[in-house]
Amino acid sequence: MLAIRNLSKTYANGIQALRDVSLEIPNGMFGLVGPNGAGKSTLMRTLATLQDADAGSVTLGDVDVLRDKHEVRQVLGYLPQEFGVYPKISAEALLDHFAVLKGFGDTAKRKKTVEGLMRTVNLWEVRKQKLGTFSGGMRQRFGIAQALLGDPQLIIVDEPTAGLDPEERRRFLNLLSEIGDQVVVILSTHIVDDVREICDRMAIIDEGRVLASGEPQALIASLEGRVWSKAVDKDEAERLQETLQMISTRRVSGRTVIRVLAEASPGEGFEPASPDLEDVYFAALRNWGHS
Question: Yes or no: is domain 2-85+134-215 CATH 1.10.3720.10?
Fold first, then answer.
C-alpha cells in the first residue's frame, strides 16, 4: 500500500503544484488522470524521490518515501515522461548497463535477468538493434524493461502512451496490465481511455487537487440517470451552455451532440445517456457531481 497524506508543493515562482493531496493506492494498476499542468508530473517526481515536498507524508509499506530515499530507490521502477536513450547502443547492451548501475554484480545473473526482461517486453528478437532504430512503442517497452530491473514494489509511468499509434498503445497497455498484478503501478496520463481500460482504481487531479477518486465503474455509476444528450446546432449549444451544466460537446455525423449533467430532463429533445469515464472526468474538472 502506498499512502499519501496531505502532500503539498509550491515552486519558487509561486505556482502551487500540489494542494493537500491524499490518496491510498493498493497493489494493482492505479490511474492518475488530469489535464496538462494539473500536478501529475510533480506528484510522480515526488514519489520517485526526484524532488521534495513542502508538507505531508508518503509511506510505501513501512518505508518513509520522503525521508528514506535510498531505500525507496531500491524498490522503485520509474519511466519518466521524457525517457532518453543512447541511439547508437543496442537495447541489450544498454539494459545490461542499467542492470550494472542497479547493482547486478554477478555477470551470469545479470545476463539471465536482462534476457528475461527483454522477453517480457517482447524485444528479445530485436535486442541487437540500435535503440535509435526503435519505434516510439518499442522505446517505451524498453523503458518498462529498465523500470522492472530489481523486482520493484512501486512502478511509476508518466504519460507512457503519448505519441504511440493504436497498435503500439494496445501492446503497451497490455504489458502494464500484466505487470500490475503483484505490485503498485501508477499510470499518470491525460488520456482517459488508458485508465478506463486497465486501471482498478483511479484519481482525477487538477490544479494540484484531487477532485475524485475510486474505482472507475463506481465513479461512472455515480452519474447514472444524470447524463442527458441532445443534437443541436452551434448557436443553441452556446446558448444552453449559459444555463445548463454542460459536460462536453462532441461532433457526431456532422452535428454537435451536447452532454449535460442534470437530475431530471433539462428540456425538450434531451435523451438519457449512459455515463462513461469521460463524463466523470469532465464533470470532476467542472466540480460537478463529486465531493
Answer: no
Nearest to 198 by CA among 178, 221, 214: 178
Mark out the alpha helices in the chain (DSSP H runs). 40-47, 69-73, 91-101, 107-120, 136-147, 166-179, 192-198, 216-221, 234-241, 277-285
Neighbouring residues of 228: CB distance < 8 A, sequence distance ≥ 6: 259, 260, 261, 262, 265, 266, 270, 271, 272, 273
Q: Dump pLDDT digits (tens) for 208-258.
A: 999 999 999 999 999 999 999 999 988 888 889 889 999 999 888 778 899
Q: What are 143's three cell numbers?
A: 523503458
> Is the whole-model pTM more than 0.85?
yes
Mean pLDDT calculated for residue range 41-69: 95
- The backbone torsions φ and ψ at residue 115, rounded to the nearest 5 degrees and listed phi first, read -65, -45
Break the chain into its structural domains and give their ranges. 2-85+134-215, 225-274
Count CB neighbours of 253 within 10 A.
Answer: 6
* Residues constituting the chain: 291
